[in-house]
Amino acid sequence: MESDYAIIGGGVVGLSVAWGLLKRGLSVTVLDGDDGSFRASRGNFGLVWVQSKGMNQPRYARWSQQSAGAWAEYASELADATGRDIGLRQEGGYDLHFSEEELQDTVAKYEELKRKLGGDYPYEVLGSNALRREEPNIGPSVVGAILHHQDGHANPLRLLHALAQDVRTLGGTVLTGKHVTDVDRKDLFRITCSDGTEIRSRKTVLSAGLGAIELGPLMGFRAPVRPQRGQVLITEKMPKIMNRPSLIARQVDEGGIQIGATNEEVGLDNTVTPAGLSRLAEEAVRAYPILARANLVRSWGALRILSPDGLPIYQESPEMPDAFLVTCHSGITLSAAHARFLPDWLEKTSAAPDLEVFGEARFS
What we know:
This protein is of the alpha+beta class. The chain has 9 helices and 17 strands.
């Protein structure tokens, strides 16, 4: 089987890139893992989030803003094509604070980032009274919040399903249950799987998340990514109690409250722990006391994919030209950018975004 692009990794990142390439008339084959693979796309928090990103690298803040700005049209196009409502709501989001000192410290950092972005960083600070007018169920322990107007959230599983469906509709091939064992190149790339499947392509994108740890060095990448566990809780479906999402909890489009997430350096362990879930529940009830009466129906642990500095990695291999590493921990936020803008970078058109700061040279 031969195509313009082989995408190794069929999560939100890989499928977003595949969708964007197919929209440009290119042929694409996606190689997705099996049910034993670590799948961040099925365990994330679903935020389309700008605030707090790029505090030390304004280009990341701008890249997140560009993606957030493209999300509404992107979600609408996917919904029209597949009949799946992605559940996008972009009416702002909160960073809740339990102390005035921490709130003011964060505001000072936001002001510095806003200056670096030329003033394009639309947020406001809500004191306790203003916040409770917006969110009557906020608890008395919350002294205030930063409301960033570019933030929002979506249904990540519907996004994943919609992308997988439309990639196939657009003529893409998605092969599941494939464990890639080798990638080499002569005139074309040859990707070999453990079951004997071989794919040939003009270009190759490695977007396999933690799979890049094994495959990256074979393709000439450093791929310095690591796992970080995030545990999450879900309540029963509830009447509307939240108007906007926060970094502590969000009310999903189906009515349940998603609470999360932990940040744990535990290697490739994606199990849930009583201690981790207890911490999440305690903080959520502190922020929203009404949740003390909610029944919990589900919990899970999933592994984020993190680079040493937390930023995405976009890199063409110095050893295998036309092989690209695309990895990040904000696959939902950046999905629109990966679909709309990254194909220009992969195809090296005049409209290609400048992603040099996200290359692996920064780890030298």
